[in-house]
Amino acid sequence: MRLFDIKFQINLPFSYFNHLGCIHRKLSEFKVAELEHYFCGDSLIDFGMSHSINEYHCGFECTAGLFGYIIHFQIYDIRHCE
Predict the structure, then answer these.
(1) pLDDT tens per residue, range 2-42
(2) Would you call 70 exposed, middle or buried from its count of C-beta atoms within 10 A (0-12, 13-18, 19+)?
(3) pLDDT score at 34
(4) Of these four, 23, 27, 28, 37, which has the most CB atoms within 10 Å of its CB?
């Protein structure tokens, strides 16, 4: 279940994707933090924030992007909820 999900995007009509890097660290037995950086050619502006519970890999995530360069941060639970 999503507690909140906020998104704002302006996309362009063409597509190109390039993954630039990822850092992830285990915070506790079941919690993981992950920071990704990628280029998405169809994205002009991309901002988002969400928090979920009681679903697969539930947790908090935040996305910020401008002119195709996007940073995505999330803290999630590695257990699979039923």
Answers:
(1) 788 999 999 988 888 899 999 999 999 989 999 999 999 88
(2) buried
(3) 95
(4) 37
Into how many domains does the chain fold?
1
Tokens of 72: 């995505």
Structural domain of 16: 7-47
Assign 48 a pLDDT band (cuts: 50, 70, 90): very high
What is the Cα–Cα distance from 49 to 3, expressed in whole angstroms? Answer: 11
pTM across the whole model: 0.83
Q: Is residue 34 part of a domain?
A: yes
| Contact partners, residue 5, CB within 8 Å, separation at least 6 | 48, 49, 50
Quick check: is 56 in a domain?
Answer: no
CA dihedral of residues 64, 66, 34, 50 (deg, nearest 10)? 30
DSSP E strand stretches across the chain: 2-11, 17-26, 31-40, 43-52, 59-66, 69-77
